[in-house]
Design a protein that fits this description.
The chain has 124 residues and is an alpha+beta fold. It has a single domain, classed as Barwin-like endoglucanases (Beta Barrel), CATH 2.40.40.20. It has helices spanning 15-21, 24-31, 38-43, 82-85, 114-123; strands at 2-8, 33-36, 51-56, 59-67, 75-79, 89-91, 94-96, 100-107. A six-stranded mixed barrel has the order 1-5-2-4-3-8.
């Protein structure tokens, strides 16, 4: 399903707080996550045990998700993090981290690990 990704800052899902106060597992739990509208959840035939594969021409990630009735339909929100950065891009010397078109589908695969993201960055 095509959706729009917007990255946001959230107190409980903050990359800087995670880097300073927690371990890698906590970072993966609190930053490899997205928030979607319950109606999108139903439309994609998701179940709570699934994860989301989000991709575009710049990258792809697998994350956990939570439903939020205050999230607009067709939008997926993610905390600003190394995970969401895999889908952002540079245009006219500006980093685009809002209104990014992405493909979203349910998967049984595990969320993308931090070490995998670091290895991707090293290869670039």
């Amino acid at each position: 399903m095509e959706m729009i990704l917007n990255t946001i800052r959230l107190i409980d899902y903050d990359q800087n707080k995670e880097w300073i106060h927690n371990d890698i597992e906590s970072m993966e739990d609190n930053l490899a996550i997205g928030f979607i509208n319950p109606m999108d959840f139903k439309e994609m035939y998701l179940v709570p045990s699934l994860k989301l594969r989000i991709s575009n021409k710049y990258g792809d990630i697998i994350i956990k998700f939570k439903q939020g009735k205050d999230i607009p339909r067709g939008i997926i929100l993610m905390p600003i993090s190394m995970w969401s950065n895999q889908l952002s891009y540079v245009e006219n010397k500006n980093i685009i981290y809002k209104n990014i078109k992405v493909q979203v589908e349910g998967t049984r695969d595990s969320p993308t690990k931090l070490i995998e993201l670091i290895n991707r960055i090293k290869k670039k």
